[in-house]
Amino acid sequence: QKEVEQNSGPLSVPEGAIASLNCTYSDRVSQSFFWYRQYSGKSPELIMSIYSNGDKEDGRFTAQLNKASQYVSLLIRDSQPSDSATYLCAVNNRHGDTGRRALTFGSGTRLQVQP
Amino acid sequence: GAVVSQHPSWVICKSGTSVKIECRSLDFQATTMFWYRQFPKQSLMLMATSNEGSKATYEQGVEKDKFLINHASLTLSTLTVTSAHPEDSSFYICSASRQYDTEAFFGQGTRLTVV
């Protein structure tokens, strides 16, 4: 069973602070990692993708990947109330008997940014 | 670019009837389309993976005769929930990717309520 683990939260941070979201995965051969944001009742929206070890920055978002530790994280700087949502970590790995690739999602971490 | 359109956004149907959900990639050709289901406060669960012109690959526990998937072209996949029952009520979301190991883009989702 390919698993992606996230703390369900809620993670509460004050406006302007840094929010740190963490994710671990079990499939050691995974090569592609993604962070999605999902507002209540809406479908997920891609925020970041990361494929190699280290940091990747895009605006206020930084994704960090450590394949040796099977760990990926998302940092949100200068958090805003509009960032309040559920953040889903996703790992691209093989599914089922045919081994087709698809995203496996974690259960998501609910972030609350307090004004 | 990378827009995925899903229709309808919500549907209410009577128990025992069938419902078809369409998923279209509007500005790219989707090698692979994925269908997910999400129950309240839970993560997305992959139901099946479909490639254009071939049979869908279903995840374990998903009834292929109940959830019919057709991927007729590189821009259209449909999910038909046959003989729907109240326990099928859920949020169904499709996603599409250009090729394996790339990010997936999500449709808006379809909220199905079976009464």
In short:
The complex is a heterodimer of chains A (115) and B (115). By secondary structure, chain A is mostly beta strands.
Q: In words, what does this structure look like?
A:
The complex is a heterodimer of chains A (115) and B (115). With 115 residues, chain A is an all-beta fold. Helices cover 0% and strands 58% of the residues of chain A. In chain A, strands 2, 4, 5, 9, 10 and 11 form a six-stranded mixed sheet that branches. Helices cover 0% and strands 51% of the residues of chain B. Chain B has no helices and eleven strands. In chain B, strands 2, 4, 5, 6, 9, 10 and 11 form a seven-stranded mixed sheet that branches. A four-stranded antiparallel sheet of chain B has the order 1-3-8-7, with no helix packed on it. The mean pLDDT of chain B is 91. Classes of the chains: A mainly beta (115), B mainly beta (115).
Rounded Rg of chain B:
13 Å
Order of helices and strands of chain A: EEEEEEEEEEE
Shape of chain A: globular
* Average pLDDT level of chain A: 91
SSE class of chain A: mainly beta
Helix-strand layout with pairing:
The complex is a heterodimer of chains A (115) and B (115).
Chain A: E1 4-6, E2 11-14, E3 19-25, E4 32-38, E5 45-50, E6 54-58, E7 61-66, E8 71-76, E9 85-95, E10 100-105, E11 109-114
Parallel strand pairs in A: 2-11
Antiparallel strand pairs in A: 1-3, 3-8, 4-5, 4-9, 6-7, 7-8, 9-10, 9-11
Chain B: E1 4-7, E2 10-13, E3 19-25, E4 32-38, E5 45-51, E6 57-58, E7 67-73, E8 76-81, E9 90-97, E10 105-106, E11 110-114
Parallel strand pairs in B: 2-11
Antiparallel strand pairs in B: 1-3, 3-8, 4-5, 4-9, 5-6, 7-8, 9-10, 9-11
